[in-house]
Amino acid sequence: xxxxxxxxIPDSKLRLVSAPVAKPARELASLIDDxxxxxxxxxxxxxxxxxxxxxxxxxxxDLAREGEDKQPLALINPQVLWTSEERSVYExxxxxxxxxxxxxxxxxxxxVRFTDRGxxxxxxxxxxxxxxxxxxxxxxxxxxxxxDHISKLKRDRxxxxxxxxxxxxx
Length: 170
Ligand code: GNR
Ligand code: NI
Known about the structure:
By secondary structure, the chain is α+β, with helices and mostly antiparallel strands. It is built from three helices and seven strands; from the N terminus they run H-E-E-E-E-E-E-E-H-H. The chain has one domain: Alpha-Beta Complex (Peptide Deformylase). The protein has helices spanning about 25-40, 130-140, 150-170; strands at about 45-50, 60, 75-85, 85-95, 95-105, 110-115, 120-125. The structure holds ligand GNR and nickel (II) ion. The site of nickel (II) ion has 5 residues, from helix 2.
């Protein structure tokens, strides 16, 4: 198991559309272990494989707070079956856009089909922060970031700041 580096914008890999998982079971299990370790280390409540440079459709989520028992959830090839008309707004952040937070409106509830880490076909209906987090992660699989849901003015400002930082570090 290892903590892997998290890609930061404007890394172009973050814009890739991830492919359905094709890995052998052992490699997939090891990817998921690394994703949880990386997510807990950050710390974050969700992670998509592309954030550690792997363009495959795997996400990890854990909304447990510090001191609570862990609630690790891995979703392989997640598919949105239904979203509610009702919307909700959360202040979102992203490990690939450090220290930037903005409110995003999304469907309040979502029903998702996925394969779990044991290979079982599952469905969950999520609401609250879990619904938002799962949608944020599924967006990553499409090369989409939460800043794509905010105003162009704010997005351009944050992209510019990170582009400048990347140039300084180059
Ligand atoms: O850690 C994270 N927190 C968060 C807060 C509100 C909405 C979504 C998230 S996901 C984010 C980790 C991350 O970047 N996942 O891709
Ligand atoms: Ni993110």
